[in-house]
Amino acid sequence: FFIRNHLPVPCINLKDYSLDLQLPSSNVSLSFEDLQNKFKKSSVTAVTQCAGNRRSEMVLIKPVKGLNWGISAIGNAKWTGVALEELLKHYDVDIETVRGKYIVFEGLDKQEDGSPYGASIPLELARILKNDIIIAYEMNNVQIPRDHGYPVRVIVPGVVGARQVKWLKKIYFSSEESTSHWQRNDYKGFNSSIDWHNVNFDKSVAISQLPVTSAICDPVEGAELEEDAEEVTVKGYAWSGGGRGIIRVDVSADGGQTWHEAQLKPNGQTPYKSYAWTLWEADVPLPRGINKTTLICKAVDISYNVQPDSVEGIWNLRGCLSNAWHR
Amino acid sequence: FFIRNHLPVPCINLKDYSLDLQLPSSNVSLSFEDLQNKFKKSSVTAVTQCAGNRRSEMVLIKPVKGLNWGISAIGNAKWTGVALEELLKHYDVDIETVRGKYIVFEGLDKQEDGSPYGASIPLELARILKNDIIIAYEMNNVQIPRDHGYPVRVIVPGVVGARQVKWLKKIYFSSEESTSHWQRNDYKGFNSSIDWHNVNFDKSVAISQLPVTSAICDPVEGAELEEDAEEVTVKGYAWSGGGRGIIRVDVSADGGQTWHEAQLKPNGQTPYKSYAWTLWEADVPLPRGINKTTLICKAVDISYNVQPDSVEGIWNLRGCLSNAWHR
């Protein structure tokens, strides 16, 4: 499971920890014990993916700003805690009717000037997700490791990692997006003719739900097959934002001339609430008489969204949203 | 607004019309007057699109089965009637808890053997759409024209036209999809290596929500510009299934080397319930010293889904889901 933070990882003593809810008519401060004991326990199994996953493929075309992630800035885990909707209901706040346009989350990780890491999601999106948004205090049935947000992190399934604030300290409603750098001036998409001289971050919509993606994990790049191999077993992951389940993965060993449909491993989720990834496997015949080939995969989600063919078509200055056919 | 029917258009006398609801504990028959007078009036403005829209671009690569639609098998209209959720609630049926996996719709249009046109949507999807599904008796504030389903049609916004049954006669819940040809053996997607010799319709998921698309409507193909023109004004539509609003449209006049962001006309809808299309316009500089150019457009939706680059990558035997960059 990848690790990414923008500010130094805070050192938190559980006894001192509190989660602050700024509600329309009251402010509430909850201890870790309160979170564990006062509310029903809820879980969600979900992918968390950095917007910069597979950025390394964009770098090959033209330099971009950001960490040079391969295909591994993604992880899948079971998160357990309190459903946000349930938590609010306890304090008589109905997520359907509460005023505001955004829910803002702030962490305990701080910039040099003392201001915290922050992110927000539109209330419209929170109302769609309802009790799938979890204020999590467990990751895979144990306390959340420090690098993943100990003791408390918000999980907003289907949404980019940057909005799933770790070391969660404060939740409030606002008529505006979080004013943080990462909400306003980062994690946005642009077309490939926008560069650092003409970019206007105000004109682009903050990334929330992520598009369909997939990647080949095995064999790894450069792997050698047996000399007389007639086929190759290919394995990987596929996932789409917004809970959209994966319905097909195609694999090609001849540059996209011929496609083979992979076997999808059931992930136990329903087509429109498929927050977990789908692992897949395909036995793909190798073209005859060659000694080198490039494998390609591409996935289709329940809305029949497909991955774009080329990195060129989606290249952007921040190297985000890199979801072209994986080669 | 395009017209498409699979069976002969029925001739319906309003006095004889009834809508039959087969509910878990009762059967209800509603006259047109009942529909108009017994329930709250609700409206939705939504795109209806044939899965075969832009099939003509797939035909250029390899023959496909289906009508040779250009970019016009799509329409946008205001539909008014009774929200399905509301209608069911009136008869004490809660869409959240009712048993079954699908809602099935049947029309008054019949095959030679007397069986009706039918379609279904997963109950999971109906629960997401809730009161946005309309049992419509008005189109753009007047009675629905005969070709569009007079007197009653179901509107399931964000979903392919084939599921939005016209001349609606019957609604029921089932553990199975509609058994109609168009649900089971048509309107499904396949990869481009599947042909009529190896196709297995059972293995593919029925098309419901459609992926992001856009098209250039003006100038039309073959249009001549003024001799000394330095730029061209390009206009078109963009839309995505599932209520996903359009956040960007890019236009290129140099084969995708340079992209210009179009102005989007507000459609009055919210980002995650944007069932109407988004019209757009862009002034695009023309490359110097050429006397012929191909314009390209591509759109991005709120989940940052993009259109695929090529028709080759999405070609399928039925010519469905043709949403590559429009050239």
Could you explain how this protein is built, in words?
Chain A has 327 residues and is mainly beta. Chain A has two domains: 14-203, Sulfite Oxidase, Chain A, domain 2, CATH 3.90.420; 213-306, Immunoglobulin-like, CATH 2.60.40.650. Chain A has five helices and 17 strands. The model of chain A has no long low-confidence stretch (mean pLDDT 96). The interface between A and B is large, with 47 and 47 residues. Chains A, B: Pathway: Energy metabolism; sulfur metabolism; Sulfur metabolism. Chains A, B: Its EC number is 1.8.3.1.
Question: What gap, in angstroms, lies between the N and C termini of chain A?
Answer: 22 Å
Domain count of chain A: the total is 2
Question: Could you please say which CATH topology of the largest domain in chain A applies here?
Answer: Sulfite Oxidase, Chain A, domain 2
The CATH architecture term of the largest domain in chain A is Alpha-Beta Complex
Question: Helical element count of chain A?
Answer: 5
Largest binding interface between chains: A-B, 47 and 47 residues
Superfamily (CATH H level) name of the largest domain in chain A: Oxidoreductase, molybdopterin-binding domain
Average of per-residue pLDDT values of chain A: 96
- State the share of residues found in helices of chain A, binned by percent: under 10%
Structural class of chain A: mainly beta
Q: What letter string, H or E per element, gives the SSE order of chain A?
A: EEHEHEHEEHEEEEHEEEEEEE
**What's the oligomerization state?**
homodimer
Strand segment tally of chain A: 17
Main sheet characteristics of chain A? 5 strands, mixed
How big is the Rg of chain A?
21 Å
The global form of chain A is globular
Q: Strand arrangement, largest sheet of chain A?
A: 2-1-10-5-6
CATH C-level of the largest domain in chain A: Alpha Beta
Low-confidence stretches of chain A: none
Beta-strand content of chain A: 25-35%
